């Protein structure tokens, strides 16, 4: 019984009392952090808006510790936008827990998190079928005193899903930290607003973190009345909304000002040559694109030059095992201590949106494709991120960002001037962003953050094509908000989790297992993985071994849009059903499959993907994979055009 309770997460934590900020994190808190910690005194909702790299995570965790120390919380749930960002917080959360948990507590190890916990705790094979148990691992994670995960698990606490009460119960009374809240669209944002409202009613302490919220976004998330007057324009800003009481918006002490030089250019060639020149002078260059395909092409362009400059590529379409190797290497170079540990020389790192928020990157020079203002600030936040490195940067280095963008008149006349970026972001928001940034040659941070955000997102009357672009985004926002509210309504039919969408996407993503070779000896199924190691899926296996094999299988998968995934039938993957839930032949009331199928393919020596059993792989694309570029789709019909 005791072991079962531990596995379920019912472990009472014993924490060390009286710890100071420096005892936990090893450094003195900044004034902004001090002010926020002092502000979090009771249950309610709190928003910390402060610049990138200021230490919002540490401020939130220490505030949570103080609430926990007063026995006014049952635990902590740290929610982030994506699995990647939540994976990256595991180590920091574990370091925090190792400091605050009593070393004599026999349950201490049960309370610590693990970077592969989402794999280790996943129900495997047919046991992972939705509805097989209302007490499965994804819900159980919220019941544990301490957990890190994606926002989705928390959002389902307010959605009309089966067994949603388990998540609601798991969050009640906790400190719930919601990070990077600016990154959600109207659909997820609407559900998020409902979640914050519910958490306040559940006696939670809600801590909301962002560097780039507008005043209207802040008020919407908190659910405060429009009668309160205009939102405070101050920045940084702490908003305090106690469970019983009125909203208080409290400016923090002013921060040290930083100047960033901004250049807008429509010439990729000019930016390419500038990036090479900077790298040759010893600078570490960061180049961020909005789509995987554009990032791959840009990396190939740099890599094809015969020069003594290291080039790297980071995006979401690598096998998990390859992605981890890439990230470990490049974060080790571009990270806080990378310049001290590694030979100091110029390098170029190309990537996509994954570089905006999830990785600790410190660059000397930035080139970025135009994107919405809030995301531009996130990217600029990767410039000169760690002051410890300032004394060893090349003398030529300057805080400077080049933004690749078309002429505004051209973009207004035809949104195709933005290229693939117009398929990733709203053309209207891109035009509004460009109209503000084309007049900026120097940013003063953090002073200019609020005014630049409001200049981009403030409502205004439009004419001509801009009016049409605006109508498009307003119509989409209304539709997404309506769909989201339908999902949180308790009046309709309860949905299975597989159909309870916490994100809106016109394109589903799907996991694809990539292998080199497969054979079927008498002992089971033998796979040769892309690193030439072998993995046997035995005919008979105990639970512990099944979990180990499942982890290895999932580490050799890549997440891709469904339309770019190889065609695979369930019958072709029966050898995986003991390890991966493949869905079944049941259909819902509308005739749709209950679950999206898992996919698999063989990677030939040329890198081209081949179907399992030589089956057709794709009607529209030639699919490829290699460890340098990742997953690629060469068009037979249309191009791969999505981001990340």
Topology summary:
Blueprint: H1 2-8, H2 21-25, H3 31-39, E1 44-49, H4 56-69, E2 76-80, H5 83-100, H6 108-111, H7 117-120, H8 137-143, E3 146-150, H9 151-155, H10 164-171, E4 175-178, H11 186-201, E5 205-210, H12 215-222, E6 237-242, E7 248-251, E8 258-265, H13 268-280, E9 284-288, H14 292-303, E10 310-314, H15 320-334, H16 338-341, E11 347-351, H17 354-357, E12 365-369, H18 373-380, E13 400-404, H19 408-413, H20 421-424, H21 427-437, E14 442-445, H22 447-457, H23 464-488, E15 509-515, E16 517-519, E17 524-528, E18 534-538, H24 543-554, E19 557-561, E20 599-603, E21 609-610, E22 621-626, E23 630-635
Parallel strand pairs: 1-5, 2-3, 2-4, 4-5, 8-13, 9-11, 9-12, 10-11, 12-13, 15-20
Antiparallel strand pairs: 1-6, 6-7, 8-14, 15-19, 16-17, 17-18, 20-21, 22-23
Helix pairs in contact: 3-4, 8-10, 11-23, 21-22, 21-23
Task: Give an overview of the whole structure.
The chain is an alpha/beta fold and 644 residues long. The chain has three domains: 2-251, P-loop containing nucleotide triphosphate hydrolases (Rossmann fold), CATH 3.40.50; 274-445, P-loop containing nucleotide triphosphate hydrolases (Rossmann fold); 505-635, no CATH class. The chain is 36% helix and 18% strand. The chain has 24 helices and 23 strands. The longest helix is centred in the C-terminal third of the chain and has 25 residues, at 464-488. The two termini are 44 Å apart. Residues 1-9, 118-124, 126-137 and 591-596 have low confidence and may be disordered.
Number of helices: 24
Shape: globular
Poorly predicted residue ranges = 1-9, 118-124, 126-137, 591-596
Largest sheet: 7 strands, mixed
CATH architecture tag of the largest domain: 3-Layer(aba) Sandwich
**Going by CATH, what is the homologous superfamily of the largest domain?**
P-loop containing nucleotide triphosphate hydrolases
| Total strand segments | 23
